[in-house]
Amino acid sequence: MGSIKRLALLSSAAAAASSVVFPAFGQEWGARPLHRPSATQLLEVPVSGNPIVPRREPALENPYANDAGAIVQGRKLFDSLNCSGCHAPLGGGGMGPSLSDDDWIYGGEPAAIYLSIAQGRPNGMPAWSRALPPQSIWQLVTYVRTLGGASAPDAGLEKKPVRSESGRRRGTQR
């Protein structure tokens, strides 16, 4: 067999092998435009043996929505867990973001608030799912939603006496 025939045979074998190894390029380099995978296809490519599949969280619904008892319990939890240390006593914000406005970083819907409490968030919000049962987290969600006016803020809560600037109750004398 001549060296030219051997070279032609090796060349065609290399072209066939390249179409198996590089199927996106076709039989020859430049014969077809490059195949560009979609974002969905890229998400399914395993990385380190783990496929990246978009997580679809189940729809979470607050079982205590507008429940006055849950609001009271949520407020007690908010105070006892020192949530006000970061978010201020009425959720007005401080070191942590405000809970009483419409500008929420991770979403102000009940499911998003639940996930923020349960899973925590970067830069300071701890994950509470190991310390609190889901019922307690939902009670916190119910109370936090009242801070922004989602329902009556004082529903089921005791009213504190209004004090004048001197610290005495209105209508009382010493």
Please specify the SSE layout and strand pairing.
Blueprint: H1 3-21, H2 39-43, E1 46-47, E2 50-51, H3 68-80, H4 84-87, H5 110-119, H6 134-147
Antiparallel strand pairs: 1-2
Structure notes:
- With 174 residues, this protein is mainly alpha-helical.
- Helices cover 37% and strands 2% of the residues.
- The chain has helices spanning 3-21, 39-43, 68-80, 84-87, 110-119, 134-147; strands at 46-47, 50-51.
- It has a two-stranded antiparallel sheet with strand order 1-2.
- Strand 1 and strand 2 form a beta hairpin.
- The longest helix is centred in the first third of the chain and has 19 residues, at 3-21.
Features:
single chain; mainly alpha; 6 helices; disordered C terminus; 2 strands; 174 residues; two-stranded antiparallel sheet
Short description:
This protein has six helices and two strands; from the N terminus they run ααββαααα.
Mean pLDDT: 74
Note the overall shape.
rod-shaped
Strand residue content: under 5%
Structural class: mainly alpha
Largest sheet: 2 strands, antiparallel
Question: What is the count of β-strands?
Answer: 2
Rg, nearest Å: 31 Å
**How many helices?**
6
Poorly predicted regions are 151-174
Helical content (DSSP H or I, runs of 4+): 25-40%
Give the helices and strands as they follow along the chain. HHEEHHHH
The N- to C-terminal Cα distance equals 120 Å
Strand order of the largest sheet: 1-2
